[in-house]
Write the structure tokens for this entry.
Amino acid sequence: MTNKVIVALDFETRADAMALVDALGAEAIAYKVGLQMLTEEGPSIVKSLVAMGKQVFLDLKVHEIPNSVAGAVAAAGKLGAHMVTVHASGGSAVLRSAVNAAKPYPQLRVLALTVITSLADQDLPEIGLAPSVSQQVERLARLAAGAGCHGVVASVQEAALLTTILPSGSLIVTPGIHLPTTAQNDQSRTASPADAANAGATHIVIGRAVTRAADPRAAFTEAARAFS
Ligand code: C5P
């Protein structure tokens, strides 16, 4: 039983998502609800998961003014979410406002998104960032820690660096995970659960490698082994 492996419920329907939750059973505690599921089905999916005793990573990826961010984070807290994401590039006032808004909800952890993992070094100049993803991640991780965020989301490639920057006890949540025993999907920069754990990730987010596996429960168990 683990909450270190967060399964992404990137489905079109609530029925599909709940079928997967049922298939994984008691072993899987943590689920990521992202923009697709939230937009398709609304916040009731979060309430249902919380009512089942699951922990919800509400991946809002908020990038807004401080007042609006605070409202969204408080709404996530009211729903019973355990983690919520805010773009660190919103700046320190946004991050501080997110952290303050989470305070009434003791279970809620504010995770700062550093650089979305689809961006590579060569993509940074067109959005005015330079010189490298790792330097940008470092800069934003320091900002997030200074603002009191509970952790960050970054790729496995940056996890080891983050362990040297963030205060101890910080959460390092890494997506972009494949399982060595199953076929690759369309991801280009991926790592295994063991790579993530060895690099210092405290949690992984895993979607299709589990949800589209022939045997999702076996795939989850394989991922969870790296964190046991
Ligand atoms: O690729 P996979 O199905 O495992 O993706 C699960 C989640 O992880 C997605 O919802 C996405 O938000 C996140 N992800 C990411 N960077 C990647 C791959 C996935 O942030 N390279």
Remarks:
- Strands lie at 2-8, 28-33, 55-62, 83-87, 109-113, 151-153, 171-174, 203-206.
- The chain has a mean pLDDT of 95.
- The longest strand covers residues 55-62.
- The pocket of cytidine-5'-monophosphate is lined by residues 8, 10, 34, 59, 117, 175-177, 187, 205-209 (CB under 6 Å).
